[in-house]
Write a structure and sequence with these properties.
The chain is of the alpha+beta class. The protein has three domains: 106 residues, Winged helix-like DNA-binding domain superfamily/Winged helix DNA-binding domain (Arc Repressor Mutant, subunit A); 119 residues, Rossmann fold, CATH 3.40.50; 245 residues, Alpha Horseshoe (Serine Threonine Protein Phosphatase 5, Tetratricopeptide repeat). It is 46% helix and 11% strand. It contains 21 helices and 14 strands. Strands 9, 10, 11, 12, 13 and 14 form a six-stranded mixed beta sheet that branches. Helix 1 crosses helix 3, helix 9 runs antiparallel to helix 10 and helix 18 packs antiparallel against helix 19.
Length: 601
């Protein structure tokens, strides 16, 4: 991509992901357009006398630590966290309590707290695995374990002004993440016919956190292909995806998307990602016309292998093998499974191996989100359907290619493309209304048609049937912002990111634009940075980053983003772009247009 001279910028050191945000209780959700007032602010650090914590003398007024002739400056927020923990030395302090006390009245991400704690530990000299000051208590919060001695008799130092907030964005965008919002589909028929937009009287209900925490958690790591056989790689990807889908159908099991083998993604994920108890993994090898599948089930806490089995079948017996795989795993897992759920698990999407392979190729092409690859994806889905006319997921994928034509203005007749998308999504649902993909795609198409309330009803049904459906919660959050309810978006994305710790660029985009319309430009920048780091050719993320820089008064950064937008889409016009953009809230549209107008868009 062509690039002009980049404006020198500082890098925001916020780790790898803004996972969660302060949210209301499940029993008392936020009303549309409102931000919860959470807690009462802690006393400011400048109001406090000096004290000694471990080997350090702490001077809150100067935001300074000193020991053995050296001093370390802290950011004001880091000092506030330290003082808050010192007041409760030896006690476990929950993350929500810290967020409520130190960021009162605003919605911020859990990652803001995580990064403050990381910086605080570094300043204090804590090392990973050998905490001498701040201890992480899994699923609960933090505890200050160093001794605290009050030194109120020491003279107070003169107050110093806190440093100005840092500005900037991720400097390098070379690494393009491939994880994006997974193919899923949408659609619920009411009395056998399409129903007009309904009215939601409250935001979508979120899962009960305590009940969810009590459920056994499982993750399915991507199955590995043995050797360089491309067909084995396709089969491995498909087996993994189908097994995740099968297990997600169970109400008594919490399916978490896998984190990297190291268990870290660049942040302190232990407090925001539920601990994973069970891990499913495997290998796939194709030898002539034989398929060899090794499957393992491990206790993630104890590290013990609970079950393993080797399957050696004819390649065309893949789907019979898959019918056996889910129930075998469920025999080991302590999940309560109803007869209806077992029947859903036993359903296969296709029995045609060649159609299955075409579908996998179509998915891979679709996720690139570029016009040429969109055409390739459409051809792959059509070939899959030609081999199996009852392949619902292939119709769902085909619907998304037409929806992409409409949204990105690739089709000569956009409305016709959107009508075709609806037809394919409806067909997918009519063939098989018992898979989560058909719900998501039909909801997505209705969203593109600006029938948002109806789309939300479909998604609410989807997450009721599939409680671990991260993409369902994420799309609901995206739609809430389109409707002018960005405060409702944040808790929904929090749920999605906890279910999918390796969230792709679109999750961060959804959070970034929600925070922008909430007026929290710092959190908006953090999330948009992550979106662009994962996918630097995402036009929508660049549009919002440009608007953010205008609103923040950073003219140089805004001009650089404008150049990026023109490189991605020559002749870009905000008014033309918004013609197929599903945001219907007038105030938010005007805010976006006014900001972009300053860049001659």
């Amino acid at each position: 991509m062509r690039r002009g001279k980049k404006v020198p910028k500082k890098r925001l050191n916020f780790g790898e992901g803004t996972r969660t945000a302060v949210q209301p209780s499940r029993s008392n959700p936020l009303p549309p357009g409102k931000i919860a007032s959470v807690g009462v602010g802690a006393p400011s650090a400048s109001d406090r006398h000096r004290l000694r914590i471990g080997d350090w003398t702490v001077d809150p007024a100067l935001n300074e630590l000193s020991a053995a002739g050296k001093s370390v400056k802290l950011e004001p927020k880091a000092m506030s966290v330290l003082i808050y923990l010192a007041d409760r030395a030896g006690q476990v302090v929950g993350r929500e309590a810290l967020l409520a006390a130190l960021w009162p009245g605003v919605v911020v991400g859990d990652d803001a707290l995580t990064q403050v704690v990381i910086k605080l530990r570094k300043a204090l000299g804590d090392t990973p695995g050998k905490a001498a000051y701040i201890q992480t208590i899994s699923k609960r919060g933090y505890r200050l374990i160093a001794p605290v001695i009050s030194a109120e008799t020491m003279p107070m130092a003169d107050s110093a002004s806190p440093p100005a907030p840092r500005k900037g964005r991720v400097a390098s965008m070379a690494a393009v993440g491939t994880a994006v919002l997974l193919l899923a589909a949408a659609g619920l028929w009411w009395s056998g016919a399409e129903r007009g937009p309904g009215v939601l009287t409250s935001p979508p209900a979120l899962p009960d956190t305590e009940a969810a925490d009590a459920q056994p958690t499982v993750t399915v790591r991507p199955f590995e292909a043995v050797g360089d056989d491309p067909q084995a790689a396709l089969l491995a990807r498909g087996i993994t995806a189908d097994l995740v889908t099968d297990l997600s159908k169970l109400s008594g099991l919490r399916v978490i998307d896998p984190v990297p083998l190291s268990g870290k993604t660049g942040t302190d994920t232990a407090a925001s990602v539920p601990p994973i108890r069970y891990v499913v993994s495997g290998t796939v090898q194709r030898v002539d016309d034989r398929l060899r599948l090794n499957v393992y089930l491990t206790d993630g806490e104890a590290g013990n292998q609970l079950w393993s089995e080797r399957f050696d079948r004819a390649t065309n017996d893949l789907f019979t093998l898959q019918d056996e795989l889910g129930p075998k795993i469920l025999q080991i897992l302590p999940a309560k499974v109803s007869e209806a759920e077992l029947r859903r698990v036993a359903q296969r999407h296709t029995r045609n191996l060649e159609a299955f392979e075409y579908f996998q190729r179509g998915q891979s092409a679709l996720l690139v989100r570029q016009q040429a690859e969109n055409e390739i994806a459409r051809d792959m889905f059509r070939q899959a359907i030609a081999l199996d006319a009852a392949f619902a997921r292939a119709y769902a994928g085909l619907a998304l290619t037409y929806a992409a034509d409409y949204r990105n203005q690739w089709a000569a007749d956009g409305p016709a493309a959107l009508d075709r998308a609806l037809e394919m999504a409806q067909t997918a649902y009519q063939i098989n209304p018992d898979i989560r993909e058909t719900y998501w795609v039909l909801a997505f198409v209705h969203m593109e048609r600006r029938q948002h309330e109806q789309a939300l009803q479909y998604l609410r049904t989807a997450v009721r049937l599939y409680p671990s459906f991260a993409d369902g919660y994420a799309l609901m959050g995206g739609i809430d912002t389109y409707l002018g309810r960005p405060a409702d978006t944040v808790p929904l994305l929090r749920t999605a990111m906890r279910l999918d710790p390796e969230a792709g660029d679109l999750y961060f985009l959804l959070l970034g634009r929600a925070y922008l319309f909430l007026g929290d430009l710092e959190q908006a920048r953090i999330n948009l940075d992550h979106a662009l780091a994962r996918n630097p050719v995402n036009l929508e993320a660049h549009v919002y980053m440009a608007a953010l820089n205008v609103l923040a008064g950073d003219k140089a950064a805004a001009a650089w983003e404008a150049e990026e937008i023109r490189a991605l889409r020559p002749g870009f016009s905000s008014h033309a772009w918004l013609e197929t953009y599903p945001m219907i809230d007038v105030a938010q549209r005007n805010k976006l247009v006014d900001a972009l107008a300053q860049l001659a868009f």
